[in-house]
Structure formats: C-alpha cells, structure tokens
C-alpha cells in the first residue's frame, strides 16, 4: 500500500442536531479542500452505513445493488443541483404565488462501460426519459494505458449538459479519456458533471488538474491507491459485484 | 418567546373516557340495551365492554363443578373485579387497555386479548356492573335494566341452549340453584344506586333514545373541549420561532424545482406522482438519519479494513390515512421491506376536529428504534398531534418518533412540538398554516 499508510480521518458522524454522545465514530471521506470543483456528499451516518454495506465483502449481489442504488440516487440528486435554473412563478393549489424555478437546458447521461451503466437506473429514477450515451474504454494490455474502443452518443450532445457516470475513480485515466471524447464532440468542459461513488485522492487531484472545469460529485474520497492501482479500502471490482459475482 | 424545552399538555378526546354502567338480572336485556345504544350512534369511539370477559379462570376442581352445572357463575365472587378496575382505569386515562377473552367452553382465559383504545364513551354491561365501589366511582351514568323474572328465565334458556351449547335441565338447575337466590342477594340491591331504571329492555324505545341523547350530549361536549384544547395549543405556538427539532430540507435548486412542479396546477397527474415519489425518497433518506448507528468494521473483497457504521434496530413506518399512502412508493424505494402500520384520522368537515377511526399498528412497535409517521400535509397540526399521541399511548418513546411530511406551517409544527418536544419533524417545505389538504387529492386523483 502506498497511499493507504496515512491514518484515515476518523470522526464522530451525525447531524448537528444530535448531541455528541449519540454520534458513533467512523471513517469519513478525506476532505479535499484544496481541490476545486469536487463536491463530496454530506457524511451522514446513513451514508456511511450504506457505504459500509457495499464495501463489506460478505454483502451479496442483491443487497449490493440495492444499497449502491440508494447512494447513486443521492449522487444524482446532488449532481442535478449544479444545473442552471431560471425563476418560474406559479400559482399554488391554495391560490398563493410561489417563486419557483424551472430547469433550464437539456441534459443527457453518458456511462463509462461497464461499471458506469450500473448508475443508469439511479439517473432514470430522477430523470425519467433522459437520453443515455455510452463509452467503452479499456486498459490496453501492452501499454497499460486506457484505450477508447467504442462510443455512441446523442447527436446533439454539444447542446446538452452531460452527467458522466462511473462509480470508481482510481487513477482517473478512463474518466479523463471520456471527458476528452465529450470535448471532441463539442461539449464544453463546464457542462460536464462527473458522478462517482468512491474516488481516490490521487485520481481526484489529477482530474482537477487536467480538466478543472468539470465538476465532480462523489460520495467518498478514500485513503489512496495500492500497488495495483486499486482504491484502498475501496470495495473490490464494482462491475463484477454489480453484474456477475 | 421560545417554546423550546417547555412541555405543554395535550388532552386527546379519549383522555377522560365516559363510562356508563348497565346492570340487571341475567336475561333482563342489558346486552341488547347496550347494543341498541351503540348501534344508534354508529361511531367507532362508542364501545361496549362486557363483564363476561372478566370471569375468573377456574381451577380444575371448579371447572369440573362448572361442567356439572354446580359452579356459581352468578355470584360476584366469579368476577375478577381487580382486573376490571385496572382496565377501566386504563380506559379512563386514555391508555391502551388489553381486555381478557374468556372461553365459556373451557372455563378459562384465552391467550389472546381484545384491545380497547381511544373510546370516548364506554358502556360497561354485566349483572354486577353497579356492584363494586371502585367501579362505581368511575361511572358517569348508572343504569339498571329490569325485566319480569319469567321473561328473564325464558330468555336465558333460549340463549344458553342456542349460543352456549348447554342442556335445558342444567340451565334450570343453575337458575334455581344460583341465579335466582343471587338476584335477591346481589343484583336487586344495585337498583337502589342506579341513576336510571329501564324496564322492558330493548322494547323500551323511549329509554334507549334518552340514553342515546345523553351519550350524544357527552360526545358533543368532549368534541367542543377537544377543539378548545387545540385552539389553546395553537395560541401557545403562535409567536414562537420554529422549534429546533423541525428539520426543513435544504432548499436546493432541485428541491425548489420539484416544489414548482408539484404546486403548479398545470402539472399532469403523471408528473405529479413522479416528482412526489422523488421528493418522498429524499425526505425518507433525511429522516432515517435519526436512526441510532453503531460502529461496524468490515473487510472489502481485497481484505482492506473499513471502519463503518451500521444501523441499530428496526425502522418502521405508520401511514396516516388517507394522505399518508402517497408516501408508500417513496418509502419502499428506500426501505423496501419497511414494517408499516396504518391509522385513519379524518377531519370532521363540520367541526374541523380530527377523529381517530381506525388503527393497525405493528405488534412490537414500542421496540423499534425509529418510527416514521407519514402524512403529506400538516395543516393545523391537529391530526399530527393525534397521530403522535396514538404512538405514545402504544409505548413508543417520543424521541424515537420522526414525523415526515411534505408541507407544514410553522404554528402547526410548533403546536405539536410544544406537546411532544422530543419528536423530530422532517418537512420538505414550510407552507401556510391551515392549508387545504390538496396533496393527497392530487396524488390519488380523487
């Protein structure tokens, strides 16, 4: 382990309305204050408990799917908050006016195959008829660099806000390549939101350096990467646990 | 003025139940009389409590005597007055009363009990309803039903043979051995302390309607008192800032966007249901943070250690019908197998008073570590107050109750929190006080 040698941030977690005595201690996300444009979900006890479930190697596939979906929905809800809105006043059923807002602009999802596809359901739970493009990126065995194999994206993607989906951000190699693909289709960097469950600090930093305008929404920043570039402690291979194991 | 930390008392309409005792000889028509009064009301909060439920369980010897028709069931000795007094005290105090069930076939108490909860008026009927001083002290009206003794005997014969599977010889033996002597010794003296003597039982329409009128008057008085009580609590809450235990969802642009969709009258029903379910899922995720959590260490597939958390105990939900049923889809998205109780509280359209019609709660609800109460709108808070009172009466500790709602007014929330300062309220939007209940109409489409 390289990055894993640091002590993980351990603290009492619980909403501020709870007294300290009722807050159990757990490992929470690394804060990445110096990294711009990364948004970590509030570390509520409920979120930590969900992450505990999906990290546990003894959790079966059905539970793994269910609990990761719950986190993904929270990620999507948080991610959508970064989309622009315009004021929209309406009259309520009780005859009052409400200074509401309307979502502006079109969106689409792009999943990085195969693990990213596991997040499509969560996205559809919040945006019913959203268009979803796909990108297949795999590690080239010879160069051990990520390589683009396939993509299928909406024609008018340049006019859309893109929610890029990949649950694990390790070295950031494939996510960065996906962003490059989107940029080459005319999507401005600032119109890309990267939704992610668990990130490594190395990956998050690298991502922020190379594509600083892309906003990252993640549930948790882990300790680091091991010698095989797996996130530590991580949760194993997300795609395997979601689809085949 | 702050209401934080102070506790005001709320008296639900079942807080001081009215008890009417109906005594009289066996076969005098007590039961029919009580049933006629209850039937003429047709309200779930006017109930009959039969003293037959309070027969003492018999020893094997007594039981053998009973099978030979030699056991005296018609003496006050056969009745367990201690338990009866306890249960009447529970009912009087508005608590949940578990009434024993007695089997005439086995001469013993059954395992199961009948639950009496939240009656406003109870009619206690039995030959010795006016016998024990402790019972008399709790009665608000004492009735003695009278009938000709030939009529009593013939009625009793018909009933015991038809409904209780006895033979005629046995019944006659009981009548002359026990029933008749006991009547003169114990039953008849109750006549002297009755407020009202009703001859000819069920045929006496005048008497029945008199008693029914008396009950109606009592109910009306209780309802007026309850409404006054609610107004008083409203005044206490009027000027206070929002209590700290009311947690309003952060009004992010998505949340505001969803409010806009939900409140816009142009939104289709399909969209409304979709956005409402989505909003509920957020509310439930917020509310389950109130569960107790304990540390839990797990190993990942690479055998890395993670110091996480796990929730302690079970979370359950209580749906306040009918509006609360709009929460169930969203609830099951987060907790698919959530144990769910239901209570029906309807607001009387004439008086605006909430009324408890029905309840079906999970059996071990008092042990759950969090109970979510689901109702889309709070309005005045009167129905919410009643729903929380029902849970507290069923033994759920106040601090384990989280009321989850879509829209609530500040005064309504403060009103409930001034009575139950330990509960939590999770709300998506602060709305007007006394807002119409439009959410359920829109969600359910009628």
Task: Write up this protein.
The complex is a heterodimer of chains A (245) and B (446). Chain A is globular. In chain A, helix 1 packs across helix 2 (61-80), helix 2 (61-80) packs across helix 3 (120-126) and helix 2 (61-80) packs across helix 6 (238-244). In chain A, strand 6, helix 3 (120-126) and strand 7 form a beta-alpha-beta unit. Chain A has 245 residues and is an alpha/beta fold. In chain A, the strands form four sheets. In chain A, strands 3, 6, 7, 8, 9, 10, 11 and 12 form an eight-stranded mixed beta sheet that branches. In chain A, strands 1-2 form a two-stranded antiparallel ribbon. Chain A contains six helices and 14 strands. Chain A is 27% helix and 30% strand. Chain B has helices spanning 30-41, 60-67, 81-92, 133-138, 149-163, 168-187, 205-237, 253-263, 269-287, 328-334, 382-393, 410-419, 439-444, and strands at 18-24, 46-50, 97-103, 108-116, 121-125, 141-146, 196-199, 246-248, 293-299, 305-311, 315-321, 339-347, 354-360, 370-374, 401-408, 424-430. Chain B has 446 residues and is α/β, with parallel strands linked by helices. Chain B is 38% helix and 23% strand. The model of chain B has no long low-confidence stretch (mean pLDDT 88). Chain B is built from 13 helices and 16 strands. In chain B, helix 1 (30-41) packs across helix 7 (205-237), helix 7 crosses helix 12 (410-419) and helix 9 (269-287) crosses helix 10 (328-334). The radius of gyration of chain B is 27 Å and the shape is elongated. In chain B, strands 8-16-15-14-11-12-13 form a seven-stranded mixed beta sheet, with helices on both faces. Chain B has a five-stranded parallel beta sheet with strand order 2-5-1-6-7, covered by helices on one side. In chain B, strands 3-4 form a two-stranded antiparallel sheet. The interface between A and B is large, with 57 and 50 residues.
Order of helices and strands of chain B: EHEHHEEEHEHHEHEHHEEEHEEEHEHEH
Poorly predicted regions of chain A are 1-5
SSE arrangement of chain A, N to C: EEEHHEEEHEEEEHEHEEEH
What is the residue-mean pLDDT of chain B, rounded to a whole number? 88
Protein name (chain A): Uracil phosphoribosyltransferase
Keywords (chain A): Glycosyltransferase, Transferase
Protein name (chain B): Uridine-cytidine kinase-like protein-like 1
